[in-house]
Specification:
By secondary structure, the protein is an alpha+beta fold. The protein folds into four domains: 1-33, no CATH class; 64-136, no CATH class; 139-261, 2-Layer Sandwich (Tetrahydropterin Synthase, Chain A); 265-353. The protein has nine helices and ten strands. The chain has helices spanning 52-66, 74-90, 188-194, 198-214, 219-223, 227-245, 266-335, 337-352, 377-382; strands at 93-96, 100-106, 109-115, 118-121, 128-134, 139-143, 155-156, 166-168, 174-185, 249-260. A hairpin with a 2-residue loop joins strand 2 (100-106) and strand 3. Helix 4 crosses helix 6 and helix 7 crosses helix 8 (337-352). The radius of gyration is 66 Å and the shape is rod-shaped. 14% of the residues are buried.
Length: 405
């Protein structure tokens, strides 16, 4: 029957395709043209993925059309080499970011100046190479930390060691120090090619500089008013050390994060600090009391001195007046000695007899007046009263001074 013919391209009444033909049935099935050439399917088409061998074969046919002689010809080889060369040369383009600088290498040797930001070209690898370095970003290296934070290219630390954070001060105390170093790259060539592992060199130099500065400082000074001075001295010393190494970095800042005694003695150290605080408090109280008492004492002393000066002036003036008065009296006495002597005698007697008991006796006791003077001189001398009715000796009159005149 006609639909059983397997050699032709026709199909049966239900669309069965032969193995070698290309006919199709009523549902659109098509012949394959060989065992793998058939692609017939149902009404929705084929769902199989494309055959890779078929794709490769078609690509080869197209290349043969482009290269009539095939890949074995000189023209084909030249085109392949030229294409590979173009692709290799294109890989030499590179871009430098605004915060970066690049160094061009040819056979591993740098040449030219550092490349500024922008799009540039250098011979591709393996002939050429490019080293790109971040020159504007701030790098931070922490020393003496007790933490466990991982290191990063811009935060070198913490990497605690057994002795990195313990340093000896100038007064022979041990101090536990944690500090950070902020630095930037200032010379790309030195940083990239002159020193191996520059970050570790920064760390080692910072530790050496800090130990030297702390070794010249006291513990209390390092903990209080000396922190800023220690940071500046360490920064200057570290910069000199790294410049001698030719490291090509700039130290921006040193930050003292912790300055404490070791953990084993921190309690005793706090007691010492409390005692020092009490000492300072007592000294301040003493100074306050002194400032209150000294002005008062000085004022009292000044008052006494002024009173003494006034008394001195008064005595001197009085003595001067008495001397002048004596001189005046002497002058008058020299002019009239008898009258002046009599006057002085009377004035003196008036002054002497003014406040004493006086007894006046007439000089002529044997006259006719009938007055018999009687004084109990022994009793008066002994301070006793004479007995009543006893015989009393007659009183002898006592002459007054100068009465015989």
């Amino acid at each position: 029957m006609a639909w059983n013919n397997n050699s032709g391209g026709g199909g049966g009444p239900w669309g069965g395709g032969g193995s070698g033909g290309g006919g199709g049935g009523p549902w659109g099935g098509g012949g394959g043209g060989g065992n793998r050439g058939g692609g017939g399917g149902g009404p929705f088409g084929s769902r199989r993925p494309p055959d890779m061998e078929d794709v490769i074969r078609k690509g080869q046919e197209r290349l043969k059309n482009l290269i009539p002689g095939g890949f074995g010809s000189y023209k084909g080889i030249a085109l392949v080499v030229l294409g590979a060369l173009v692709i290799w040369l294109v890989t030499g383009f590179f871009r430098v970011q605004p915060n970066q600088q690049a160094i061009q290498l040819v056979f591993g040797k740098p040449y030219g100046k550092p490349v500024e930001p922008g799009l540039h070209y250098n011979l591709p690898s393996p002939i050429g190479n490019v080293v790109v370095v971040n020159v504007q970003d701030q790098r931070r290296t922490v020393l003496g930390s007790r933490g466990s934070q991982a290191s990063t290219p811009y935060n070198r630390g913490p990497r605690p060691t057994s002795t990195e954070n313990l340093m000896l001060t100038g007064d022979e105390n041990i101090v536990d120090i944690e500090f950070a170093v902020l630095w930037q790259i200032k010379d790309v060539f030195n940083y990239a090619f002159d020193v191996r592992n520059p970050e570790e060199n920064v760390r080692a130099g910072a530790e050496a500089a800090m130990r030297e500065v702390i070794g010249k400082s006291n513990l209390q000074y390092a903990q209080t008013e000396g922190r800023s001075r220690i940071e500046q001295d360490t920064k200057d010393l570290l910069q000199r050390i790294l410049d001698e190494y030719g490291l090509g970095v700039r130290i921006s800042q040193i930050q003292l994060l912790r300055v404490d005694p070791p953990q084993e003695v921190i309690a005793a150290f706090r007691d010492v600090q409390a005692a020092r605080a009490d000492k300072e408090r007592l000294i301040n109280e003493g100074n306050t009391y002194r400032n209150q008492q000294l002005p008062r004492a000085k004022g009292e002393a000044e008052s006494i001195v002024q009173r003494s000066e006034a008394y001195k002036a008064e005595i001197v003036a009085r003595a001067s007046g008495d001397a002048q008065r004596f001189d005046q009296v002497y002058e008058q006495w020299a002019k009239a000695k008898d009258i002046t002597t009599e006057r002085l005698y009377l004035d003196t007697m008036e002054e002497v007899l003014r406040n004493v008991n006086k007894v006046l006796v007439d000089k002529n006791t044997s006259g006719t007046g009938g007055v018999l003077p009687y004084l109990p001189l022994p009793e008066l001398r002994s301070g006793q009263q004479p007995a009543t009715g006893a015989a009393q000796p007659p009183r002898q009159p006592q002459p007054l001074p100068g009465a015989t005149r």
